[in-house]
Amino acid sequence: MIPRACTLAAVLAALLLVSPASSAAASGTVTTIVEFDTSASQLPEGLAVDRGGDAFVSFAPLGQLAEIDVDDGPAPSVEPVGSVPGVAPATDLGLLGLTIGPGGDVYGAVVSAAAQGVWRFDEDGGAPERVPGTEAIGFPNGLAFDPDGNLFVASSAEGSAPTGAMSGGIWRVSRDGAIERLLVDDVLGGTGALVPTGVGANGIAYRDGLLYVTNTEKGALLSIPVGRDGSLGEPTVVASGAGLVGADGLALDSHGNVYIAVISQSKVVRVARDGAIEPIADASDGLDWPSSVAFAPGCDGPLYAVNFAIGGQFGSPPGAGPALLAIDVSGRGEPMR
């Protein structure tokens, strides 16, 4: 059976033929699927797409998960799924990265004084529940499952390394529920440029025995080998530099490319196997501080993205606003697992 999101790709392809990209530097074409309400604090940070083609977004300050049927006409509805109790919009970062579990449940990373940890949203509509033990994670941000059902969590801040530098970490929630911090290192830590604790390890994805992890403040994409015993090897820099400063969520395609939302630069880039960085879309295409990207599993595009649209908090001029977008990248998506 072809996932419903794949049928949308055909529709978008037709639209894109009459709506060419507006940016000479970028090679993708962006279509807005739905705009969100800034006045209602509908600021989407996380994004995940299931096998049926439904998109899930996290409205960070509300601690709320919402679902969008991307095949539901030109103006799809935004349906609330549930909210994490205890998230304080005025002080907490709230509900951040998302991923889909093996059984179809949605998992979200929460940074909150009262609700810290990883939360599971039941696909059947039950109240969200915190995964026991995940409240110990310093700064849960990105989430990714491996094929065995183990959940890896990128923690953007885990305190200070022995050298005094900021450190970040990788945690694992095993399929049996065991919680373990597998790696803590200053290569995964931030610089303090965005928040005092630093925003280091952020987006994360698993494929073929490797974790791919972005470091936001240091502007880097890392790969980390996962041993057969579950241990993690030494992080290796795949790509780094000014073009990746602000790197947030990421998605993988079947050609070995990594797509990264570079939030503070309002752009999405593609990183090839050799580390070459290519801009795909930017602010002139309607991107506004994009924080997450995702493919629908098994589909030949498009690449979905969300505009977090928080540039005003950092002194940037108003942009296109919060939205769910589709970017034509002419590539086949791989599940973030």
Features:
4% helix; 337 residues; 1 helix; mainly beta; 4-stranded antiparallel β-sheet; Neuraminidase
Into how many domains do the coordinates divide? 1
The CATH superfamily name is TolB, C-terminal domain
Number of strands: 24
Shape: globular
As for the CATH topology, it is Neuraminidase
Report the C-alpha radius of gyration, rounded: 18 Å
Q: DSSP strand (E) fraction? A: 35-45%
Helix and strand pattern: HEEEEEEEEEEEEEEEEEEEEEEEE
Provide the helix percentage.
Answer: under 10%
How many helices in DSSP terms?
Answer: 1
The CATH architecture category equals: 6 Propeller
Structural class: mainly beta
Name of the top-level CATH class: Mainly Beta
Strand order in the sheet with the most strands: 1-24-23-22
Question: What gap, in angstroms, lies between the N and C termini?
Answer: 20 Å
Assembly classification? single chain
Q: Characterize the largest beta sheet: strand count, sense, and whether it forms a barrel.
A: 4 strands, antiparallel
Which spans have pLDDT < 50 for at least 5 consecutive residues?
7-25
Chain-averaged pLDDT? 89
Give a verbal description of the structure.
- There is one protein chain.
- This protein is mainly beta.
- It has one domain: 6 Propeller (Neuraminidase), CATH 2.120.10.30.
- Helices cover 4% and strands 41% of the residues.
- It is built from one helix and 24 strands.
- A hairpin with an 8-residue loop joins strand 4 and strand 5.
- The longest helix has 14 residues.
- The radius of gyration is 18 Å and the shape is globular.
- The two termini are 20 Å apart.
- The relative contact order is 0.16.
- About 6% of the residues have low confidence.
